[in-house]
Write a structure and sequence with these properties.
- The chain has 645 residues and is an alpha/beta fold.
- It has 3 domains: 156 residues, Chitobiase, domain 2 (2-Layer Sandwich), CATH 3.30.379; 310 residues, TIM Barrel; 132 residues, no CATH class.
- It is built from 20 helices and 21 strands.
- The strands form 6 sheets. It has a 7-stranded parallel beta sheet.
- The two termini are 43 Å apart.
């Protein structure tokens, strides 16, 4: 969206909300540190990418361009065509006839000839990029050792400069209509995101690779180079009831558990975990399993070795003794184990796949949240022993499942979380992945109140050396501003210097159009109500299992006020029903998706306030839109039950 237009719209929305008695201000932690910096743009004199809707340029890629480079070229060509009405051809190096005017994507021969710069991952992270204008051409590339996702993200920044391109959601992409685009003079600089890797595990992105990439995210899946995501040490690596492959005497015809019962703690129960002190044979078998995955996924970079999803850890005599002497706690045992496994797998890589970069991920989760550290006499936090110092390729996925997301990480409400994060930072700086949450797992239809803390949490994580950021939402389709959350959070993960509230306003202005002020009013009423409830009534309700399904929080007057805003939102778009029926239906569906939350509150939390006929009509609307939007769960693991009767 044109930035001047956005400011006008945002100011208008805030003005309307002031008359409604709704606050319109920031609730973010102070900013700090450095964010992606780009110099002020100038143009090349008398040179145009498009003039009169016509372009003399071509988009250049290598003959053997990878997926990201090819997709970047397609995105560039298609969006320029949408903006100008005319396309630019995509050509490979062997077919290039005119070298004078190109947009070169990736490490082309022309890059070497004209830019002549070797890009290193020590300067540009995996999803960063370098851009430079040389003579009459623009070059966007990234280090050869990376996935080339940075080329795609560089194209999106280029499109933002050229045509005000903005990706709000899969069904809302903005490009300014123009017949003239100047050639910008990029002076040669690298752009690195705030967080090197960014993930939003949620149903709508899991099932939509294109949208994920357009948000500059990855999904935790093989298609994005992340293997064995989640909890898998005894469900994906060493399955106890699988055929034993240890190769030792007596293993033939036996399962892993039958041959090595000491490898598994809590076998046959929901508390099962690996024993991380079981010895060299388990380390070798796990290493071999990694090697199998390396061969199965030759292009993958991240391999996760996640402990199982329960509260237990092995407490055998060996584990207890090893913790006392070397490891301090279960997290230390896990690191000791993985350091040994990685020594074996990296030895295999050096011999069989020299030059391949592999990163390993383990959880700091139930039972392993506390870092294995000690404090020296001079107050420095260091690993408890050399054995628990994570090797360079080992990443720690810190998952504070007990955090209160209504408060900042560095608040008193999250004292243990903050302490753990600081201690992990002390021994794994630059090797930390943060796992935050965007959902209350006990109710998918009521908005989770982390709106005012997202940016501050990101700030704290960035300051403490977190390299990669993850924020999990529901694993099934749901409502509660999912599109807005994806837009805002993906933007902040990329560039944390932006304002959360400005991004919300920009999204709502683009996505809800005439109804934006009313959706924003609903959003602000929710925030104000949560501010009262979570500060005065139930401070602990900001966790992912907090009690938010209550008429103490959602009183009938509050819910009615929210519902009135939805009536006004629908009235504001009524003019499109005949003049632009497709636009009307799109906006109506977007509005009704969010209204589902209010309908739910009425029929589940406040039914006594409404007549049987009113409840029947609301139930009919609820059932229709639940099915229309393919919602399947009211909370984690539970369907809608009698709500759809």
């Amino acid at each position: 969206m044109d930035k001047k237009l956005f400011k006008i719209i945002a100011s208008a929305v805030c003005l309307v909300l002031c008359f409604m008695g709704v606050a319109c201000g920031e609730t973010e932690a102070p900013q700090g540190g450095e964010e992606p910096q780009k110099p002020q743009l100038s143009t090349v004199a008398s040179e145009y990418l498009y003039q009169g809707g016509i372009s003399e340029y071509s988009i250049l890629i290598r003959d053997d361009a990878n997926y990201y480079e090819s997709f970047a070229a397609t995105e560039l060509a298609e969006n320029l065509c949408k903006a100008t009405g005319n396309s630019i051809p995509v050509v490979t190096e062997s077919a290039l006839a005119d070298k004078t005017r190109v947009i070169s994507l990736g490490h082309t021969d022309l890059w070497d000839e004209k830019v002549g710069k070797t890009l290193l991952e020590t300067d540009i992270v995996d999803s960063g990029y370098y851009i430079q204008t040389v003579e009459k051409s623009v070059y966007i590339s990234c280090p050869d050792s990376t996935s080339s996702s940075g080329v795609l993200y560089g194209v999106y920044d280029f499109l933002s400069d050229a045509i005000d391109y903005e990706f709000y959601a899969a069904d809302e992409i903005y490009c300014k209509q123009t017949k003239e685009i100047p050639l910008y003079n990029y002076t040669g600089y690298a752009v690195n995101p705030t967080f090197e890797m960014r993930m939003l595990p949620k149903a709508d992105l899991r099932d939509d690779r294109l949208t994920t990439m357009r948000y500059r995210m990855i999904s935790p899946s093989a298609s994005f180079g992340l293997i064995t995501w989640g909890h898998g040490q005894v469900s994906q690596y060493i399955v106890p009831d699988a055929k034993c492959k240890c190769g030792l005497e007596g293993c033939e015809g036996k399962t892993y558990y039958q041959h090595h019962p000491d490898w598994f703690y809590g076998y046959g129960t929901k508390e099962m975990q690996l024993c991380w002190t079981a010895g060299e044979e388990l380390e070798r078998v796990v290493a071999n399993r990694f090697i199998e995955f390396f061969q199965q996924y030759p292009d993958a970079e991240y391999f996760m070795f996640g402990q199982e999803d329960n509260l237990s850890n092995c407490n055998c005599d060996d584990c207890t003794a090893m913790m006392a002497q070397y490891a301090k706690n279960p997290a230390g045992l896990q690191i000791m184990f993985m350091n040994k496994v990685i020594a074996l797998t990296n030895g295999w890589l050096a011999e069989n796949e020299p030059g391949r970069s592999v990163k390993y991920i383990i959880y700091a989760y139930y039972g392993t949240e506390a870092a294995p550290i000690k404090t020296t006499p001079d107050g420095k936090v260091v690993p408890f022993s050399d054995y628990v110092d994570p090797v360079d390729d080992l990443y720690i996925f810190y998952t504070p499942i007990g955090a209160n997301f209504a408060y900042q990480i560095n608040s008193d409400k999250n004292a243990d979380v903050y302490k753990n994060l600081k201690e992990w930072s002390a021994i794994a700086d630059g090797q930390l992945i943060m796992y935050l949450y965007d959902i209350n797992f006990r109710n998918y239809l009521i908005n989770f109140n982390n709106f005012g803390t997202v940016k501050g949490m990101y700030e704290t994580c960035r300051e403490l050396g977190v390299a990669c950021m993850t924020s999990q939402a529901a694993d099934s389709y749901t409502t509660c501003f999912q599109e807005m959350r994806s837009y805002v959070e993906s933007n902040l993960m990329w560039d944390l210097s932006q304002s959360y509230d400005d991004l919300v306003l920009e999204f709502m202005s683009a996505y809800y159009k005439d109804a934006a002020q009313y959706l924003y009013g609903y959003y602000e009423i929710m925030r104000d109500r949560y501010a009262y409830y979570q500060n005065i009534v139930s401070p602990e309700s900001g966790g992912i299992y907090g009690d938010i399904n209550t008429n103490v929080l959602w009183t009938q007057p509050v819910v009615e006020k929210m519902d009135e805003l939805f009536d006004k939102a629908l009235a504001s778009i009524a003019k499109y029903e005949t003049s632009s029926p497709d636009l009307y239906l799109s906006l109506k569906n977007r509005i009704m998706k969010e209204r589902l939350s209010v309908i739910y509150m009425k029929i589940r939390i406040l039914p006594s306030y409404y007549s049987e006929n009113e409840i029947a009509q609301m139930r009919a609307d609820f059932k229709y839109y639940v099915n229309f939007f393919k919602l399947s769960e009211l909370k984690e693991g539970s369907d809608f039950g009698d709500l759809l009767d």
